[in-house]
Specification:
The protein is built from one helix and 32 strands. By secondary structure, it is mostly beta strands. The strands form seven sheets. Strands 1, 2, 12, 13, 14, 15, 16, 17, 18, 19 and 20 form an eleven-stranded antiparallel β-sheet that branches. Strands 26, 27, 28, 30 and 31 form a five-stranded antiparallel β-sheet that branches. A four-stranded antiparallel β-sheet has the order 7-6-5-32.
Length: 332
């Protein structure tokens, strides 16, 4: 169907109608240009804000404060479980973990970042009997959880108590795969992928609007800015930006290797890029952490940091090596 020059897609549904960090004097920005210095003398722009959050092997979830460069452990390996998310305001964490002796379900826990106190906790049984190794994303208002697509389940949206709000099983009879993605928009809308399409939908998620048809052999890892205005996407090894309506698709990274994905800073001005992606085994892979402005210009991820067209390597205060991740990246 066509309506107002937009393509609309009928969703396959199973619906249940419940339908700042402080800094010491030593780390304060210098009065002349506002820059902060990280490890190895890396200069950080004055307007860089928030915390970089990322998985690293058996250390759990690490975080780097962008104003001080200080690195710390946010979640240990046991708490991290099968996946995690942190709310936009940085106060609530969502984790998905195994349940001892239960091979069919996972336990979802919402808790306060500050003291670990539990806000909500429930067991989640995939309705189609799919893998228990799933994880979710908190909606901008922290009221809903979007379970990422799998081969068996598609996209599932739950409320904080674990009650199913909607289950998107297919788009025009085209089922989801585990390579598809879902991201939240302001107002609890979602952007998601299905086959060669990037789409968006708003509550109650009964119709989807086409954002862009992706006629590329290799693409994916869609991420959305917190204001819902920009999308980053991996195409043929490198990162591109586009507007939320699919316009102005522009390549913003280049390198001799492969990028993985790029997540937006809270204000949308910068991107944290998973660069130098490489496999470490049959199931393992790692990537380096680098930062570029989200200004639509092309940045060379191989060049030295001081060059105007290059990325900023994430080297915490007091360290000399770039940080590496083997999983989820967030910027809060």
């Amino acid at each position: 169907m066509m309506q107002s020059a937009k393509r609309y897609f009928l969703l396959g549904l199973c619906i249940i109608l419940f339908v700042g960090s402080s800094c010491s004097k030593e780390d304060e920005a210098s009065p002349d240009n506002g820059e902060v210095t990280w490890g190895s003398g890396i200069k950080i722009p004055a307007d860089l804000q928030g915390r970089l959050i990322y998985d690293w092997v058996d250390e759990g979830v690490l975080t780097v404060d962008t104003r001080t460069g200080a690195k710390s452990v946010l979640l240990n390996e046991e708490v991290r479980g099968n996946g995690f998310d942190i709310s936009r305001d940085g106060r609530i964490r969502l984790t998905s973990t195994d349940i001892r002796g239960n091979y069919d379900a996972s336990q979802y826990t919402l808790s306060n970042v500050a003291d670990g106190s539990i806000v909500s906790q429930f067991e989640f049984y995939p309705p189609n009997g799919g893998s228990k190794y799933n994880s979710g994303l908190l909606s901008p208002d922290n009221s809903l959880i979007a379970i990422k697509p799998t081969f068996e389940e598609g996209i599932i949206i739950l409320d904080k108590s674990g009650k199913e709000v909607v289950h998107l099983t297919a788009i025009n009879n085209n089922a989801f795969t585990r390579n598809d993605r879902v991201e939240w928009l302001p107002g609890n809308g979602i952007v998601f992928t299905n086959g060669k399409y990037i789409l968006k939908a708003v509550p109650p998620y009964t119709n989807a609007t086409l954002v862009k048809e992706m006629n590329y052999q290799d693409w994916g890892n869609v991420k959305v800015s917190q204001d819902g205005q920009k999308i980053s996407v991996l195409i043929d090894k490198h990162i591109y930006l586009m507007n939320i309506d699919g316009s102005n698709l522009t390549q913003v990274t280049t390198s001799k290797t492969q990028e993985l994905e790029a997540v937006f800073s809270p204000d949308g001005k910068y991107l944290l890029v998973g660069s130098d992606f490489r496999r470490t085994g049959v199931f393992g892979a790692v990537h380096n952490l680098k930062i570029i402005p989200a200004d639509g210009k092309l940045y060379d991820l191989d060049a030295e940091q001081m060059a105007s067209s290059s990325a900023i390597p994430v080297i915490p205060k007091g360290e000399t090596k770039i940080e590496t991740s083997d999983g989820i990246m967030l910027w809060r």
